Amino acid sequence: MPTLSIRRNFICLLALFFVIALGLSAGETATTFPLDQVRPGLKGVAYTIFTGDEVEKVDLVVLGVLHNALGPKQDVILVQLLGEKAEHSGVVAGMSGSPVYFDGKLAGALSLKLGVFTKEAIGGVTPIQGMLDVERDAANPKQTDTIRNSPLAVNTGTIPPASRVALPQEFSSRTGAGAGQFLVPIETPLISAGLYPDTIAQFSKQISGWGMSMVAGGNAEPSPEDANLKPGDMVGVELIRGDLSIAPGCTVTAVESDGTVLACGHPIFSFGSVSMPMTRGHVVTTLASAMASTKIMTSGATIGTLTQDRTTAIMGKLGAGPPMIPVDVTLAMPNIEKKFHFEVIESPQLTPLLVALATYNGITGSPAYGEGWTLRLDGDIELKGHTPVHLENLFAPNDAPIPSGFFVANEVQGIFARIYSNPYERAHVDGVHIKVTALAERRWSMIDNAWTEKSEVTPGETVAVKVLLRPYRGEPFIQEIPITIPPQTARGTLQLLISDGETLDRTVDPMATMQGPLPGLEELIRLINRGRQNDCLYATLLQPTTTLLVEDKVMPNAPSSEINVLDQRQSVGGARLLHQSLAGSWFAEMHQVITGERTLTIIVK
What we know:
The protein is an alpha+beta fold. It contains eleven helices and 34 strands. The chain starts with a helix and ends with a strand.
């Protein structure tokens, strides 16, 4: 019996030893492998997931070290993956960040691939010394290169200060056939759930600029184990969550004892310092393809915040995620109303596109919605400390193969872009509320002609303006607009502009569609909110006197004294002169999109 007990204890200790050894081999060593000791023929291992949450070992051999491969002092270790799975799948999208070890020491992250349709699984490894710079620069942004390059024994999760130079877009997105035999970042799977094929088609060009591979995915139920990350596990970066979710995913390279996570071995967007939710990723399966194998993934619970997106790695911190912008989209149709709720990250570079994409996805997602419908947009963008930006307009399809829902999304994206690109202060969005009302007909008319009862008038006189409108595939009709000549109007020749709202904005208030020098963000919001709608027919009386535009203010009939002061100054921020002034403006609500313009001459006696 004592002998049996000793044997059991020995077996338990042996098992414990192997568990500890496996953990160390997966990235929990206390040292890194120096780049100057990497030689061709050196054998090592990488850790990644092919299915489920099981981290698997992949053997590899060093082919060589490519010095300055991605830029000055950005070396790459060229390796060949070995084994049946590697030979079958090659270098897989989603492997980015897979930790690579030589002699049990962390050498870097698998992050690059060589060419397309290659017969061998050849990839590039970002050296760990370069990755550690990301972490050090984030903690000590004024560190010198001498400190960065000093040898250091680190935990498997420490990374280098990220280089501030982003990869050129054409380089990072060079993933298609015919790109040549370049070392390019391994594609990052863009996990999407709830995204309709039509949405992908309409926004594919903008999404492809991210250099990612969009794959079908889903959302996994949160688990208490989600935050227990180890090297080789998958993480995602949540861009949208809710009724629609989008999250790029890659592999964890190292996890520090303080919760710092290093992953990818290359940038996702090259944005530098960021604040994005970090989620747990799960692999459903690995899809093998001769052109581009990829991991099919799901996105789990939020487990922390991504803080750095740099050339050699992304870095995050385990814990709570950052706040996101709540977005509510309501689609109202004659017999049904559908509501969608999303949350999107706050990012000047991405939020405009993400909100537009979510809006379009909500519009086209209803089986009751059909092309040829007119869409009315109503909504508000709530900004912290500022007046809300109001959204209101009407959009009708034309004969071009562009769905009307795309015009709505483009309007939303354009306004968001103006807000985020303002040079006055960083805008913080508290919430977005959008309602799109679908009208089951094509409401669109073009201004075909216009005339007045008489061309000679007196001050104070009312004149009827008649406008011939030609609706889409309908019978022409006449709309009458009575205008009254202002009593103070001087004698002379005036121009009467019959137009849509966009033409009027461009003619009499060009600052409303520009982003010139203004006192601040509030004035920009005021300009956006006073933009005219495109479902009204406007009659605008213009006189040949100068209008002074200063910042967000329009001053018609500017006195010569002010104009002289403006001429004598070398630089007047936001000031412009127009050689005509608004004498009066009238409109008729048409409840349909109006396009076109006509100009009439009015003589005041």
